[in-house]
Amino acid sequence: MLILLKLGGSLITDKTQPYTPRPETLKALSLQIEAAFQKNADLRLILGHGSGSFGHQAASQFGTREGVSGTKAWRGFAEVWYQASALNRLVVEALRKAGLPAVTLAPVSAVTARDGQVAAWDLAPLKAALANNLLPVLHGDVVFDEVRGGTILSTEDLFAHLARQLHPERILLAGLEAGVWKDFPTRTQLIKEITPQNIPGHAASLGGSTGADVTGGMQAKVTEMLRLVEQTPGLEVLIFSGEGDGNILEALQGDNPGTRLHC
Questions:
Q1: pLDDT score at 159
Q2: Rounded to a whole number, what is the distance in angstroms from the first to the last CA of the chain?
Q3: 3 has which bridge partners?
Q4: Structural domain for 138, as ranges
Q5: Which residues contact 234 (CB under 8 A, 6 or more apart)?
Q6: How high is the pLDDT of residue 15?
Q7: What is the pLDDT of residue 209?
Q8: DSSP symbol at 169
Q9: From CA 47, how far away is CA 138, in angstroms rounded?
Q10: Is this model's pTM higher than 0.85 or not?
Q11: CATH code (residue 69)
């Protein structure tokens, strides 16, 4: 069983405060992931995380996602890389303390984009990590782009490519929100299921994000993931809160504590 799990930037950092991690949350999440491996020896997991209040601050300042040209913009590219990597180190440290053999496979050194989309990615190291019972860790990152010079690929962008290549059973997107709300930002009616058939009735409900986010809010996330489940037979995507007590473990065990996207 292969699962892709994203720990959202809003979950592992305070997106309203620049460069502010949430170490206790990282610890709790890591312990739940370790417990999932203990309960299921057949679990294969690729972990991704957002950049939250780290990478998004610099990315907003320099407009890196739209393209990179000129000395100032390339220095911004390097700054976004540095901040995203700094947060990644904190994530991996929390995973290591929980007893997990985490290994970061940084997108900047492996992925080439073409106009904001993955163009080439040698997946041999990632497959080797999975085959040897390691926990490969990815994150939203800057990458070199054949059209734009440079850009940023979100964890969802990376997961979309992996879904088409590796055919996971589930993609789990853990953030702060309990799922997709019918009445955001009031948050009293949770949408339990979204399909290509019922999405027109929910389109007006999809809101954005709290805090700096250069890679799109909830609407972009739902649109991209729904397109992906249409293209990938048998795939389901779960959008849920990683803050709920035990929600990460439940999701890794097959439960649905949030909004389920499927065909």
A1: 97
A2: 20
A3: 45, 170
A4: 2-261
A5: 167, 169
A6: 86
A7: 47
A8: S
A9: 6
A10: yes
A11: 3.40.1160.10
